[in-house]
Amino acid sequence: MREPLRFSGVMPANILPFKADLSIDEPAYRRHLRWLADTRGVTGLVANGHASEVSSLSRDERKRSLAIALDEVAGRCPVIAGVYSDGTAEAVELARDAKTAGAAGVLVFPPTLFMWGAQLKPDMVLRHFVEVAGVGLPIIVFEYPPASGIGYAPETLATLAAIPQVAGVKDWSNEIVAFERNLRAVRATGRPVAMLSSFTMSLMASFLLGADGAISGMGSVAADLQVELFEACGKGDVDGARRINDRLDPLVRVFYAPPFVDMHNRMKEALVLLGRIPAAHVRPPLTQVSAGEREAIRHALVASGLLPA
After folding, report:
1. Contact call for residues 167 and 7 (beta carbons, < 8 A)
2. pLDDT in tens, 94-129
3. Which of 75, 184, 209, 236 places its Cα 20 to 30 Å from the Cα of 58?
4. 171 and 197 in contact (C-beta within 8 Å)?
5. Whole-number mean pLDDT of the chain?
6. Could you tell me which residues come within 8 angstroms of residue 216 by beta carbon, excluding any fewer than 6 positions away?
7. Is the pLDDT of residue 294 over 90?
8. Which contacts of 174-178 are long-range, i.e. CB under 8 A and separated by 24 or more positions?
9. Local structure of residue 18 (DSSP, 8 states)
10. pTM greater than 0.90 (yes/no)
11. What DSSP designation does 257 have?
12. Are strands 79-83 and 105-108 parallel, antiparallel or unpaired?
């Protein structure tokens, strides 16, 4: 009999509020985490992901942001720690930090070096994950878009799924054909590896194909709507899912508009407009959005029903 999935459902990747001096705003961060953990249907959180501007965080700051998340969530749902590193040795150390802190698992980002040939050297990818797996925590593999050069081929994902510690794939392929091929490859292994969609620009499609849930930075803003969408798709309520998807669409279009690099900056602005965090400070090289874009975000929040007109 197949064992149950370790991870499933809607698992937002939290944003990380900063003060004007760009230090972590702990009180604001705790309020944000409480809203996420208290949202009905949220089954886990991801700290130290893209949404938290992880590339700008020192190792000590990553430890601190994870410690705050674990303390504030206090066991209400699992907390996954992002492992963002360009080297295997450092990735192993970050995974050890996560285990020591008490994280439920790690989300392993692909090293940027992989863009120069990961598709052609699956043995290199496998070694990286085997070494991280040696730490002993459940692993979620972060799958990037094929066009990025860092995405893994479906066959490579199937190989990684055979590692006992691999419990999930966060699929950010951002292309529905690639998503389906990845889904089928992982399912064919017979292992209980969760397919967690990060295809936020078309979340309904990936849910209807059979994703086990989602990991999404946009969940920091709209976790409640993502939960409703996931539940409607799971029940086969396509008309209901379309209605929720129509509410998410204005947010998707404003958050993921070019330039894509500003997606999480925009989400911070949305949280300020919703009164959930006090300021939308971001760390360089990121820059804050313009007044015009801030107004577009306000209109999208109104159109989605999250903000009164």
Report:
1. yes
2. 999 999 999 999 999 999 988 887 777 899 999 999
3. 75
4. yes
5. 96
6. 10, 11, 12, 13, 197, 198, 200, 203, 226
7. yes
8. 174/145, 174/199, 174/201, 175/145, 175/146, 175/147, 176/202, 176/205, 176/206, 176/209, 178/145, 178/146, 178/151
9. B
10. yes
11. S
12. parallel
